[in-house]
């Protein structure tokens, strides 16, 4: 099955002329004209950016998501390609209204008019995994209904299997493959894709994020209507706002664009360091701006989580980075086990400094994060730094946030915006406030355990005494066996001596 999927990928790439992206650069450029002559029957009048978008749409949801990610990287791609790929964020061709109605009626076991007072058969948004319709409940509540694409699961399963095969080959044939843990990365990606295919799980993600930002002045998360949710249908509060990518419309509404960019950075760091739970698919198609100036988040299929150890490690690295303490960054990598213990800290520090120092005190418009990532990759390869699969989603989200910030306010100083927030968070974690917070958090456990301490100590002493007694008895039995063997040997020798004396001629 995988070989057929691979052949399809090659066929689609050939049909849409994606070979142009390979033959336009480097040593293969001389093949461009011969390939065009040999494939003269292909219809390639459309611009290359449109052909790339159509090819990704034809290949299915995983490739669409790849295009969505690329669309936020305007510093890495030509403008024509990034503008065209941006259409993948919410303009993927929808499936038919008949299929949508059939899915809903099967899920509810009722006719659509028995469930909703009104239902708009025309979707307002269509993405790679699902599409959204507007409706009105019988009590007059306006809602948005997310419906999973029928038959999408097998397609995704085939693509993930193909990615896993590619990762396995890369690990086997590429020297950096094992260090990068490509199969673990694919496994992590597959796990989150599976989550997207269960809209009950997405609804629970939405509810959790809503609780985390209840009454927040930064982010609004819609309410979920659980009575109407199924594994392939999710119903939530309808939200009204301007897509964050429509910057000119926001300016016309007198929105403070630089402040909006700073709010985006604060929302990201709040999710990561306060909650350890973050929206991991924050491309422009999933973010709106409300009339009150707050961000509005939708599409909660992919959420990332971080352990306390991950948060502390990241915070230490970010702060050391903002303070230009590259030695501390290098030391943190070694202490966390991400770099070998025999790593020369001074050499590692010098490599990190060479990458990071040139970008300080510069606005986003003067920084090429694509080039920085490439340099960091080279440095990590040189010092055998292991890639952490659990942070792949965080890295992807950070790139999305940076892309949003670049579109909103190219003059945004990411470092100065983030540094005060991180310093305050670290003070709460490490200082007196952090100690008080942890004591308060653990207090309920202590009130339960403290009364049990005398009994637990007594039990431990008894168990320890019994263990000591058992060990002594074992030793005594072993000693007794040794003595019995010795006595038997002596008796045998005496018997032999006696027999020798009796029968000696």
UniProtKB/TrEMBL annotation:
Coiled coil: 459-486
Keyword Transmembrane appears in the UniProt entry: yes
Membrane-traversing stretches: 486-503
Domain named Protein kinase: residues: 118-461
GO MF entry, a single one: protein kinase activity
InterPro entries linked to this entry: ABC1_dom, Kinase-like_dom_sf, Prot_kinase_dom, UbiB, UbiB_bact, UbiB_kinase
A single GO BP: ubiquinone biosynthetic process
Pathway(s) of this molecule: Cofactor biosynthesis; ubiquinone biosynthesis [regulation]
UniProt record similarity statement: Belongs to the protein kinase superfamily. ADCK protein kinase family.
Protein name as catalogued: 2-octaprenylphenol hydroxylase
Species annotation: Nitrosomonas cryotolerans ATCC 49181
The organism's taxonomic lineage, starting at the top: Bacteria, Pseudomonadati, Pseudomonadota, Betaproteobacteria, Nitrosomonadales
């Amino acid at each position: 099955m995988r070989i057929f999927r691979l052949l399809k990928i090659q066929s689609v790439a050939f049909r849409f002329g994606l070979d142009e992206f390979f033959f336009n650069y480097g040593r293969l450029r001389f093949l461009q004209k011969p390939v065009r002559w040999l494939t003269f029957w292909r219809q390639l009048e459309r611009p290359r950016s449109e052909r790339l978008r159509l090819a990704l749409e034809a290949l299915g949801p995983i490739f669409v998501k790849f295009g969505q990610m690329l669309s936020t990287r305007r510093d890495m791609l030509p403008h024509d390609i990034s503008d065209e790929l941006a259409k993948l964020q919410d303009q993927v061709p929808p499936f038919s209204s008949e299929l949508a109605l059939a899915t809903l009626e099967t899920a509810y076991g009722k006719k659509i008019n028995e469930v909703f007072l009104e239902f708009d058969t025309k979707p307002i948004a269509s993405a790679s995994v699902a599409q959204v319709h507007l409706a009105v409940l019988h009590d007059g509540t306006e809602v948005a209904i997310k419906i999973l694409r029928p038959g999408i699961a097998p397609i995704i399963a085939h693509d993930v299997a193909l990615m896993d095969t590619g990762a396995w080959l890369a690990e086997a044939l590429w020297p950096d493959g094992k260090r990068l843990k490509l199969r673990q990365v694919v496994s992590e990606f597959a796990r989150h894709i599976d989550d997207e295919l269960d809209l009950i799980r997405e609804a629970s993600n939405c509810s959790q994020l809503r609780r985390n930002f209840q009454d927040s002045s930064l982010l609004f998360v819609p309410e979920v209507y659980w009575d109407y949710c199924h594994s392939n249908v999710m119903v939530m509060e309808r939200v009204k706002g301007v897509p964050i990518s429509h910057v000119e419309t926001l300016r016309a509404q007198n929105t403070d664009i630089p402040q909006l960019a700073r709010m985006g950075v604060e929302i990201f760091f709040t999710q990561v360091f306060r909650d350890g739970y973050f929206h991991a698919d924050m491309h422009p198609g999933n973010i709106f701006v409300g009339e009150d100036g707050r961000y509005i988040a939708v599409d909660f299929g992919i959420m990332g989580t971080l352990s306390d150890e991950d948060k502390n490690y990241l915070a230490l690295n970010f702060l050391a980075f903002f303070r230009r303490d590259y030695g501390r960054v290098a030391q943190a990598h070694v202490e966390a086990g991400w770099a070998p213990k025999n790593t020369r800290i001074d050499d590692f520090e010098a490599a990190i400094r060479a990458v990071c120092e040139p970008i300080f005190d510069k606005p986003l418009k003067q920084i090429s994060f694509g080039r920085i990532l490439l340099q960091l990759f080279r440095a990590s390869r040189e010092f055998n730094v292991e890639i952490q699969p659990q942070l792949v989603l965080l890295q992807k989200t950070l790139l999305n946030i940076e892309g949003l910030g670049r579109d909103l306010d190219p003059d945004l100083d990411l470092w100065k915006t983030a540094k005060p927030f991180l310093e305050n968070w670290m003070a709460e974690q490490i200082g007196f406030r952090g100690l008080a917070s942890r004591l308060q958090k653990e207090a309920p456990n202590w009130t339960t355990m403290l009364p049990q301490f005398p009994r637990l100590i007594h039990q431990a002493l008894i168990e320890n005494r019994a263990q000591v007694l058992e060990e002594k008895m074992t030793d005594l039995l072993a000693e007794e066996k040794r003595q019995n063997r010795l006595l038997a040997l002596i008796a045998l020798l005496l018997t032999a001596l006696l027999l020798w004396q009796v029968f000696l001629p």
